[in-house]
Design the sequence.
């Protein structure tokens, strides 16, 4: 799980990257509060409703600013100091939550009067930076954070692997449960229950749970549709732990797979292997797309919906590096990526997608996901 | 559910309230995009990851600005026009999602050159308003929105009642399932499944699922704890539909309730009735707190944890009006509120909380929730 040491290291790297350009930094996006401070309010508590928090970083201290109702989450964060703002005490009428925080953060920043402040230009609320006390130069640190967060630390990989182990339980439960007549919603609930049991806490999950033609999207949430004999069901979902998400897939069939379905699954597995073989530092991301798509084509398959071959993931998804035809990205050690061959043949109602997650290593890659890929048990 | 007519009416009321003070308005908080445009991206889709959207309102048009990956959610919104921004096409490396939207919204606002712009000062990202083209006067519309949204429209009430009917199914499932030996997590999963089945779509739920002393908080999420014979379990949770949430409660006992537990449940029910009798427009919110707490005290009960007696709810919770001892709020027609008597007697491991939701009407109130309150089936 996310550690104090990991957060310190990430803050240190941000300073090194920013060099002398800023005196202090102000962060407000949920993803970078998780990245730099391990702050990740639970979506399963009323406490996180309409809340937001800020991380103030100066070279000598990291201060998390949050309101009193977020105290349990703030106390679990890894910072040098908490600044807890009184918002609601259960005895008095409270003012608007966002505004109370905005005023408090603006006061805090104003009191420090930095001449050169780094901010998340796309996340810090406008009102925070509008005070008369703030007259220095502002630098957007958003692009630097996106760049840095591609390389995962050991505590980030451990958090991702926890999410992955929960998701693996979900894939196993779905494989066990699928049969003609079961609904997408029943399968969704089996997956959710298995992930929750694996984590020993309610699982935050999202993704594709759609059968047949609906698997092409754009709406791939679970519905009351009951699977028909021979129908394909794509399970492509994420579990989120402390802001970090995995993203991998399998395709199951309700009942006995046909020879064509088996052949397409074999093609997708071969394509995945071709991609996996090429993963490594210095590799152009579009190469992975090329070899995966070439294997599918070599086996004579065409698709009516061309999806991306893969992408980076971690604090969001999709994100860089993009494993697509026109990608400008080059793989680096520490990137976490997916490869996800996906084929919807003409005249088929549905299609097949399978997917693994990998971390790029000096020697090539390490596969992070261990679910069994296959159409049936 | 949220309707186009409802959204138009709410935008109209915002214009009326703002009068001549602004020429245009820019909204970016999730709660007010739901309120004014019915825009509510699903938390169960990868599409909403790191996304944000903006609503531009001029007297002659309402424009929702979102990126292409949010298209399905944007198309379900109620506005005059969509401005879809190309972020990721599955073929090329994409830039940071937040920044692409920030630049697009800034360009849009800059092209309109409003002299007097109303903004959500605590939600619109700083970078949106930093462009050289924006030299007019800025007004924070956040407080006006908080004020307006207290009074619920028919479509908002219908949405809340859909959330309530799903939650009622959850309460019934928990009452059916509770027994000594069942875990909090198993109960959570039963509740989640029942809500999901009632909605025919994955349910977004959060709240308290803790037994015994843990029910006092602050951490009230479900754990692997197995309920002991006679242990009290407080179920106090919310279902969220299109951004609107209910919030009501019951307390169950694993096994046979004791005489003391029955007596406390009766006291809480009487207290709830005292509060309910007084609900109506023009009533000071603190009066509700007084009569509820007086009934509990009159029956000889004291508590080791004094919670609020109630609060407003809808697009968030808690929010105004606050039903607390030092409240400054006065109830109005259209307010949706909870009353939630809660007692943790000294020397008890746990306590009891029960809760209903109401809308304030000309004649007093209408109760919105219909779950059976009681310690057992």
Sequence:
């Amino acid at each position: 799980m996310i550690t104090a040491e990991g957060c310190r290291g990430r803050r240190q790297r941000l300073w090194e990257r920013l060099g002398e350009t800023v005196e202090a930094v102000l962060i407000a996006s949920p993803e970078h509060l998780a990245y730099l401070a391990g702050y990740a309010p639970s979506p399963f508590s009323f406490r996180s409703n309409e809340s937001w928090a800020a991380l103030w970083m100066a070279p000598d201290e990291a201060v998390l600013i949050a309101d009193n109702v977020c105290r349990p989450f703030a106390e679990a964060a890894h910072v040098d100091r908490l600044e807890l703002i009184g918002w609601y005490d259960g005895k008095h009428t409270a003012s608007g939550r966002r505004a109370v925080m905005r005023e408090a953060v603006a006061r805090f920043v104003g009191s420090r009067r930095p001449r050169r402040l780094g901010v998340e230009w796309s996340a810090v609320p406008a009102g925070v930076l509008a005070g008369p006390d703030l007259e220095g130069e502002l630098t957007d640190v958003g692009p630097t954070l996106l760049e840095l967060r591609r390389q995962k630390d050991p505590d980030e990989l451990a958090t991702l692997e926890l999410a992955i182990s929960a998701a693996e339980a979900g894939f196993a439960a779905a494989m066990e449960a699928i049969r003609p007549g079961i609904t997408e919603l029943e399968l969704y609930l089996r997956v959710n229950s298995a992930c929750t049991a694996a984590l020993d806490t309610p699982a935050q999950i999202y993704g594709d749970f759609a059968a047949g033609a609906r698997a092409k999207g754009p709406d791939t949430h679970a519905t009351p549709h009951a699977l028909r004999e021979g129908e394909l069901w794509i399970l492509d979902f994420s579990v989120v732990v402390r802001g970090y998400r995995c993203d991998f897939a399998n395709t199951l069939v309700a009942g006995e797979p046909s020879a064509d379905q088996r052949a397409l699954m074999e093609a997708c597995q071969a394509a995945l292997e071709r991609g996996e073989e090429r993963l490594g530092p210095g590799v152009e991301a579009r190469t992975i797309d090329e070899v995966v798509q070439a294997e599918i084509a070599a086996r004579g398959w065409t698709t009516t919906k061309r999806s991306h071959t893969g992408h980076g993931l971690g604090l969001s998804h999709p994100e860089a590096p993009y494993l697509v035809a026109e990608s400008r990205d080059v793989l680096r050690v520490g990137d976490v990526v997916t490869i996800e061959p996906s084929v919807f043949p003409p005249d088929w109602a549905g299609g097949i997608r399978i997917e693994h997650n990998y971390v790029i290593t000096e020697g090539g890659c390490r596969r992070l996901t261990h679910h069994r890929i296959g159409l049936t048990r």
